[in-house]
Amino acid sequence: MMIEIYGLKNCDRCRAALKWLKSQELEARFHDVRQDGFPEKEARKWITVLGTDSAINRRSTTWRQLPPARRASNMTTEEALALLKEFPALLKRPVIEIEGAVLIGFDDDVKTEIKRIAT
Q1: Which residue, of 29, 68, 79, 89, has the fewest CB within 10 Å?
Q2: In 22-119, beta strands by DSSP E
Q3: Tens digit of pLDDT for each residue in 32-80?
């Protein structure tokens, strides 16, 4: 089983997730959404499954620096994809794909879910 992780290489949560997965002897492949290119097909799935609120980090500096017109609270999937493609740092991280499931963030609930799916 391969776990796919999407994020930024300098993101503390992404590094913590990779380190934890390694400690659990789970194989993961990391995709830096800035350097490796933005995965539009996958991001469309994340937004469809979890919604724009789950996919976009509205607490980030990048978000706060956007003009108010770009920070719509009721964004369509297409608007969210365009924003994430233009500003990959807006992606809530890490995004973890495991056996068809999509998880965002890295907390105890995500760890529990990964363990449940992986066993």
Answers
A1: 68
A2: 28-32, 95-98, 101-104
A3: 999 999 999 999 999 998 898 899 999 999 999 999 888 877 889 999 9
